[in-house]
Amino acid sequence: AYRPWQADGSPPPSGTRLEEVSLLLYENAYNTEDIVRAMNGYQHPDAWEGGAWITTPSGKQAVLFAGTKSNGDKYWYGYINPNGPQYACVDANVTDFTTCRNADGSACPQEDFSGCCDAEAGTCVSNRGWWTTRFDAEFILFDPNDLAKVANGQMESWEPQPYAAIDIDERLYLNPPEWDLVELGWGDQRRTRIGDVSYDRQSGLLYVLELYADGAMPIIHVWQIK
C-alpha cells in the first residue's frame, strides 16, 4: 500500500519514489527449502491470478483472491503420471531442490523420486512443471482488519491468513482444446483454471475469468455479492 500525496495533501515532485508497505507478502520459495512464513495449506503449484477488495452496501468488506489451488495429498515438479493422479512423476534429473512433497510439506517417500518417464525420449504425457494429485478453482477471503494491522506494525506481512475458501469448480466449464492438455492437464490435475477478477462496487458484481473454457477461448462468470 502507498499514499500518493504528502502529509499536507500536496502531490510529491515528479519522479519521487513513494514510500510503500507490503500488506501481504509470504516467504519466497526460492529463498528457503522450508515451508515457512507461508499461507496455511500452501503448496508450490498454487497459482493465485486475481484479486479484489469486496465491499457491500451493508458495510461488510473482504479482500478476495482467485486462482487455482493445489489441494493434493502430494505435489511434485515433473510430469503427470499416466497411471493416475495419485502417483507422482518427478523429473529425476532435477536434484537441487525437493521435487516431491506431501500435503504437510514433508518430503515424499524415496520411491516417488525415481521418475516415470523420459522427456528426451518423448515418453512423458505432459509438459514439465509443478503438478499435484488435485487442483481446485478457489476464492479465498482475508479480513481487511488484518491488513490494517500489518500497515500499523501490529502484524508481520506473512501473518494474515484467509478466513474462508470457496471452491467454484462446479460452476466452471473446464473445456480446453485437446492440443493444450499436455500443458494444462486434465481431470483433477487440470491447472490454470481461472484468471483475473474485477469487482463492480456500484452494482455489487464480481467478474471472474475462466481460462480455456470454450476451447482456447476464456469466458467470464459473474457473481452477485450481497
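the 2nd protein, sequnce then structure:
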Amino acid sequence: MELKGKGYYIWRLKNCEKGNPDRIVDLAREAKLSHVLIKIADGAFPYNVDLESGFDYVRPVIKKLQSHNIAVWGWQYIYGNHPDQEAQIAVKRSIELGVDGYVVNAEHEFKQPKKAAAASRYMNILRNNLGSLPIALSSYRFPSYHPDFPFSNFLKRCDYNMPQVYWMKSINTGGAQLQRCINEYNQIKPFRTIVPTGPTFKEHGWIPQENDVTEFLQVAQKLNLPAVNFWYWEGCRRDLPKFWDLVRNYRYENSTAGNNFLSQYFAALNSNNPDKVIKFYHSNAVHIRSGGAIVGKPAIREWITNLMEEHTGQKFILLQENVDRHIHNFRWQVQKPNGGVTEGRDTMGVIDNTIRFHYSIIQQP
C-alpha cells in the first residue's frame, strides 16, 4: 500500500487510551490519520502481549482501525544479535495480525562490528517471507553523524525510509532539520521514498516548539513528501496534548499541480506506449543525458522507446518530487526481477503542461 497523510506511532498499547479500540479509532478518525504504527515485536519476542494471560492487545485495535479504512503498520526494535529469530517473530506477527506494512527500528546496536551482515540477513528473511508487504527503516535523521551504521544494508530491502527527525535541545529548527535530513539521504544508495517522523514528546526537560512542528509539516509538504509520522501517541496525549491538537488540526496534503503532471507522465511511461509519453514534450524539447543532448520529438521518442524496452514488464515508480514554479525535480526507480534496481534523478522544465527541457541521470546501484 502507498502511504499518504498523517500517522502516529504507538509504543505501549495499554497506555494508549487504556488500550480501548473504540477510543483509539475515534481519535484517529477525528485527527484524520491515514495510518497508525503499533509496536508488535521487540528483538526476538512479541510485544504488546500480556505475559501472564497471553492476551494480545494489538489484534482488536488493528481490526477496528482497518474496519474504518485506517492502515496499520507493525514495528519492531531490533538488536542484531539473533537476526534469524528477530526476523522470524517479525514475519509471524505480521502475518498473524494482518498488518498493512512493517517498520524496522534499528539504531546504535548496528554500529558494532559485523552488524552489517546481521542487518542484511534479517532483511533478506523479512523480504523473502513477507513478499510485497511494504517495509520501512526507522533510524537516524543525519547519516553523516553515523558513518558506522549500515544504512544501505537495510534500505536495499525496504520500500520506505522513515528517519527520526528529532531536534532535542534545539529551537526554531524543525524545517531546517527536515531539509538537511532529506539532503543527506539523497546521497545514500539506494534512495527510498522518505516519510519522516517528527517529535511530539518531551525528553529531559526539552519539548519542541509549536512553530517548529508546524514548520516541519510545512517543509514536508513543500518537498512533496507523501506522508509524515509523529512519535508518539500515548506520550503526546499524556504530556503534550496541545501538540496532539496541532497535528489533528493540520491539513496535510501534497501540492497537487506537480503531482498531477508527473502522475500522468508516469502513467504514460507504464503504458508501454511511447506515443503516450511523447505527447508531454514540446516539439523542440531538449533532452540531456549522459550520452549528450538530443532535440525534438523524434529523437526523444526513440530514447523513450529504448527505456521502455529495457524495462519491459517492470513498473516505473515515482519516489520523490519537488516543484518550484516551472521546475520539477524528481526521483524514480524500477525494480528488476533479479532484485536489482534502476534509479533515476531527473529535472524537467514544464510550461503550460509541456516539457521544454528534460535532464536525466540514470544509475544502476
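The longest strand covers residues 341-351. Residues 258-363 form a domain with the Nuclear Transport Factor 2; Chain: A, fold (CATH 3.10.450.50).
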